[in-house]
């Protein structure tokens, strides 16, 4: 019997793989059912705690342990987390804009995504902008959001991604221009290092703030919640400690009346982990998902994710309810890719003459 887990860190995948091998020294030969005990040992015993590398390694191992336990008991993971709190799981589409380089192309891609069934769309309209975004870049971003809103109409939710690229003053300046388009949320508007900056933006706009993909444990989320810096928390199942820790983060968020919206631009195993968490967390609101992923995803997981009316059904079991075809995975070996959100070719320009 085996369990699947997804451990990754974009641009640092081999570093995470090394951390997994180091944790192997502890895990091999131990009872896999003692998930809580293993999580605390892996997180608390090392002198060097926290951070994205250790968090990602623990996350993948933790997912695999939950998958294994669910299989051993013959039940879906969400039943082990307390059972279903929802009947369906609403998702927002990400990745629908790939290949679009102009405002008109992005708007057309948005319309196509809605035609394929999405009821909520997320994207980053800020091109190559940084902390001190230029006025032309602001005009382009606002025009892009306006064009997408005009294309999809008022019934589709728009989720504005910022990737932590703006200074607090500029994040507020942009937010006030976006408010007229009624975004569902404004994601990671400022860099993640200073929680007071995020709280300042939250107090300065009517758009709900979402953040948390670069927080790696409940300890990182606590000041975010205490300062009411977010309306939606976004822990990532591949970075923030896996299923064990995300369930606790969601419960902590519930005490502050904050929605649970897991960050998930990830692969199929992480998506299944998110589905089980979303099912079992009463404050779950919406799940990130990539409808258009790599062409071989469905072959790797033996079928496609089910969707209807902008939502997913409750996940299957036992365990996470997923098996991967290793032959398909071997046919697509790892290729390193560095992340750089400030590439000049990403620059978005305003429409001319409008």
TrEMBL record:
PROSITE patterns: MR_MLE_1
Its EC number(s): 4.2.1.6
Pfam families per UniProt: MR_MLE_C, MR_MLE_N
The keyword Lyase appears for this protein: yes
Keywords assigned by UniProt, alphabetized: Lyase
Ranges where the Mandelate racemase/muconate lactonizing enzyme C-terminal domain occurs: 103-208
GO biological process assignments: amino acid catabolic process
Cross-referenced SMART domains: MR_MLE
Gene Ontology MF, one: galactonate dehydratase activity
Full protein name: Galactonate dehydratase
